[in-house]
Design a protein that fits this description.
The complex is a heterodimer of chains A (365) and B (216). Helices cover 64% and strands 12% of the residues of chain A. Chain A has 2 domains: 181 residues, no CATH class; 132 residues, Histidine kinase-like ATPase, C-terminal domain (Heat Shock Protein 90). Chain A has 365 residues and is α+β, with helices and mostly antiparallel strands. Chain A has a 5-stranded mixed beta sheet, with helices on one face. In chain A, helix 4 runs antiparallel to helix 5. With 216 residues, chain B is of the alpha/beta class. Chain B has a single domain, classed as Rossmann fold, CATH 3.40.50. Chain B has 9 helices and 5 strands. Chain B has a 5-stranded parallel beta sheet, with helices on both faces. Chain B is globular and about 45 Å long. The termini of chain B are far apart. Classes of the chains: A alpha+beta (365), B alpha/beta (216). At the A-B interface, strand 1, strand 2, strand 3 and strand 5 of A face helix 5, helix 6 and helix 7 of B.
């Protein structure tokens, strides 16, 4: 129900009301003249059959309506033909002087049936209503001479019934247009809202990623500004070294270069060399494409290891047939925090005497 | 006692020639640089023609590497250590295929140069870390199949530049590290074009029992 298009829902609701009206009209208004004038009809059974058929059509429509489903074209079309036929039969069995009077119970009722059947098919509905009026009027004309009063009365009845039912058609049309417009507006609003939400999410992600990549920088700067950190302190200097290397790597990340991984590794090496560390860098193997997130993970341990290096480091990047390996062997103050758990790359870190060896490996497809 | 090892240095920079001569001369035992010059001719005429080892700069004043000169020297049975500015894997592998006993980058320093020259004097290959990296990263179709241990040794040597460290890491002795590296070079000597140095290398490896005739 909820996932039906709004105009389908509109017609389903309209139809339920119409079926209710039809049932009430048939039982409440039409049944009593039919019973009352049984003796006047020629023959009465034709009228009764027509009444039964019309009631049946209403019941059949109700089967779809309780499920709030639109009527299938076969049911709607077939129903309209059956209803028109029933109307013709009921009209034919009228006494000659009973046209468009209370004895002609079927005239107004058939219009309601047609509305129920064809409310979502405006063209066929207009045609069917037209046919209904034309047939009834033709039968009225054929049945004999009518004086002006009779014709006038008939005209009033036809016009009033037609006017009322046409008004319902027009209202439905207007409602449908409004609904479609509302749907379009709502869709536009939804799209805009989605776009705004996406943009906001992207911005938030960017902030988070940036904050994540800035890592130790922000708290460090805050600490220096607040004078809670002493720049002469060894630990503070180590943190500065780490922040500096992280920033250099981050700045290198978006550069357009043929070999981004080596470019980022070089940035880290450069940052270390500026601190007076003697670094030897070796690169071997043909470059393979490495996604940005993987590059971050591959260079992450290197950044930490280099920031903790005391005097010299050997950094290597090796691309083999199925692996990319970034390794660093350095004399570090401590091996703390170098190896971090990473779902993408395998990080191995070990201390051998005064030296710490760290390696990040990524199996490329 | 054997006569001291002699070398000829072909390099277009006088400072490099002087530096190489100094490095080689200060080792124990010293290696004598008998000739040097910016043209490969010094390795063919005069005292240079009899030098035990040729130390050849691959980029003699031009952009194209002097691979032709290397090939001619190797075909004449000379033992060549290629000494290059560039750490380019492909060139390094080509030099090995042509029959150079070592490909050394100028970033790699005195120790490697002295060791490479000594090894070349004996007709042995020497695999410095950068060359080990090139071999480990070799993805060519005709590369020889290396054992897992051999690959491990190559990678660790490339990453650490220290055989003691490799030995410590892998729980083997430094001499085992060396024999792994040598075996790898013998495997490489068996592929590509033939060269006297490569043939000699394989022959000696069989004599020493480093590889069996079945491995060929």
């Amino acid at each position: 129900m909820a996932d039906l298009p709004p105009d389908v829902r509109l017609f389903a609701n309209t139809r339920i009301v119409l079926v209710g009206v039809t049932a009430v009209v048939q039982v409440g208004i039409c049944a009593s003249p039919l019973l009352l004038h049984q003796a006047d009809y020629r023959p009465a059974w034709a009228e009764n059959v027509a009444f039964g058929v019309l009631a049946l059509v209403t019941a059949v429509c109700a089967a779809w309506l309780v499920r709030r489903e639109p009527l299938p074209a076969v049911v709607a079309g077939g129903g309209a033909v059956v209803v028109l036929a029933a109307s013709a039969v009921a009209t034919a069995a009228l006494p000659a002087d009973g046209y468009f009077l209370d004895v002609h119970w079927s005239f107004g009722l058939v219009g309601w049936h047609l509305l129920v059947l064809l409310v979502d098919r405006i063209g066929p509905l207009v045609v069917a209503l037209g046919l209904h009026i034309a047939t009834s009027v033709t039968q009225f004309v054929l049945v004999g001479d009518h004086d002006r009063v009779e014709v006038g009365d008939a005209g009033v009845v036809v016009l009033s019934v037609l006017g009322f039912q046409s008004a319902i058609v027009v209202i439905t049309l207007v409602l449908r247009r409004q609904t479609r417009l509302a749907v379009r507006v709502a869709a536009d609003r939804d799209r805009t809202a989605t776009r705004a939400a996406l943009a906001e999410q992207w911005e938030r992600d960017r902030r988070l990623t940036f904050a994540g990549q800035l890592g130790a920088t922000l708290p460090l700067l805050v600490g220096l500004a607040d004078r809670t950190l002493d720049p002469r302190d060894e630990e503070t200097r180590r943190r500065c070294a780490l922040a500096g290397t992280q920033l250099r790597r981050l700045f290198a990340e978006n550069d357009d270069v043929p070999d981004p991984l080596v470019h980022e590794v070089r940035a880290c090496v450069d940052a270390a060399e500026r601190r007076g560390i003697e670094v030897s860098l070796a690169v071997s193997g043909t470059a393979v494409p490495v996604p940005t997130v993987v590059r971050r993970e591959l260079t992450g341990p290197l950044v930490v290891a280099l920031s903790q290096t005391l005097t010299r480091a050997r950094v290597s990047v090796l691309r083999t047939e199925n692996e990319v390996r970034v390794a660093v062997l350095a004399d570090t103050a401590s091996a703390e925090g170098i190896a971090r758990a990473s779902p993408l790359v395998r990080v191995e870190c070990g201390t051998y005497g005064t030296r710490t060896r760290t390696e990040a490996r990524w199996s490329h497809p | 006692m054997e006569s001291p090892l002699t070398a000829v240095v072909v390099d277009d920079h006088p400072a490099v020639r002087a530096g190489v001569a100094h490095w080689l001369g200060s080792g124990t035992p010293p290696i004598t640089v008998v000739a040097g010059g910016e043209d490969v001719r010094v390795a063919w005429i005069g005292e240079g023609a009899d030098a035990d080892v040729v130390i050849l700069d691959l980029h003699l004043g031009g952009p194209t590497p002097a691979l032709g000169d290397l090939r001619r020297l190797v075909e004449a049975g000379r033992r060549v250590v290629v000494y290059s500015m560039r750490a380019d894997d492909e060139t390094a592998l080509t030099c090995l295929e042509l029959g150079a006993l070592c490909y050394l980058t100028k970033a790699e320093g005195a120790d490697h140069l002295v060791e490479a020259t000594r090894a070349a004097g004996r007709g042995d290959p020497y695999t410095p870390p950068s060359l080990a990296g090139a071999l480990a990263g070799d993805r060519s179709d005709h590369r020889p199949a290396l054992s897992a241990r051999e690959t491990e040794v190559l990678v660790e040597w490339f990453q650490s530049e220290s055989k003691d460290f490799v030995a410590q890491r892998l729980g083997i002795t430094a001499s085992t590290v060396n024999s792994h590296l040598e075996r790898i070079r013998i495997k490489y000597a068996q592929i590509g074009r033939e060269a006297p140095t490569k043939a000699a290398l394989v022959a000696r490896a069989i004599q020493d029992g480093l590889i069996g005739v079945d491995d060929l």
